[in-house]
Amino acid sequence: MNADMTERLVRFQQPEKTLTYLGGLDETRVAALFGLDPDAYRGLRQGFDDRLRQIAAELLMDAGFADHVARLPFAPGQHVVAIGESTTADRLSWFEILRHILPDDITLTNLAISGCTSTQALTQLPALPFHRPDWVLCMLGGNDAQRLGPTGAPTLVSSTETERNLLTLRELITQRTSARWVWLTPASVDEERISTYPHFQRARITWTNKDIDSIAEFLRAQREPTLDTRAVTSGLHLDDGLHLTLAGQRAIAVALVHALAELS
């Protein structure tokens, strides 16, 4: 495995979240799963963190942005939890940027898992109340929209089931906790890049913006605040056309701060 692929895997895959039945994975064991020694793994993680800190510092230098951060509705001591898939699980995600922007007296927990569908997210439901969230930021649906073949093939999760799952997550969590709920729509995709990406070609899977739009419009019709991420992420994708560049993640973070500031 080359260095670029290893870095991408470490960026998006977090075995410690998915292999919990092993009784907890320390840094040495996680590093070994990527074929790395602990120092190399730690170095990659530190590199991601350094980039996040730099972005946060650059954003906070803008007086207008800093004012929006000061107006965010999160109170000291509150707990903000994110659920989602790779766009949120990404170690350079919008949520991780937010972590470096917010004051230290606000706790952020990222429960997103790469590849997660809304159906799989329901399996997290029993554990969520134990986190006692004050806010839940939910960005799901992108993996549901994966088509198991060319355009016209079935989606991984049907649109009816996606809508049911998302509403179930919201209803049960808001019933079991006092958390305020915020939706983020799935990000846009680059269909041309997806169609030529070798790994997707071999697996015969694809995504379309039409399917993403359907989920986004459903979320926009809900009563809770919804950040539409489609426009701000357009054209900001990695070579696979699905995952976002750091610029795309930054764009979501900025848009979310502006949107949440309006809630206060």
Q: What does this entry show, briefly?
A:
The chain has 264 residues and is of the alpha/beta class.
What does this entry look like structurally?
With 264 residues, the chain is an alpha/beta fold. It has 14 helices and five strands. It has helices at residues 3-12, 15-18, 27-33, 38-60, 63-70, 86-89, 94-101, 118-121, 159-176, 191-196, 198-203, 209-220, 230-233, 246-261, and strands at 79-84, 107-110, 135-139, 180-184, 226-227. Helix 9 (159-176) links the parallel strand 3 (135-139) and strand 4. Helix 3 (27-33) crosses helix 4 (38-60) and helix 5 (63-70) packs across helix 14 (246-261). The relative contact order is 0.13.
Question: What's the helix and strand layout?
Answer:
Elements: H1 3-12, H2 15-18, H3 27-33, H4 38-60, H5 63-70, E1 79-84, H6 86-89, H7 94-101, E2 107-110, H8 118-121, E3 135-139, H9 159-176, E4 180-184, H10 191-196, H11 198-203, H12 209-220, E5 226-227, H13 230-233, H14 246-261
Parallel strand pairs: 1-2, 1-3, 3-4, 4-5
Helix pairs in contact: 3-4, 4-7, 5-14, 7-14
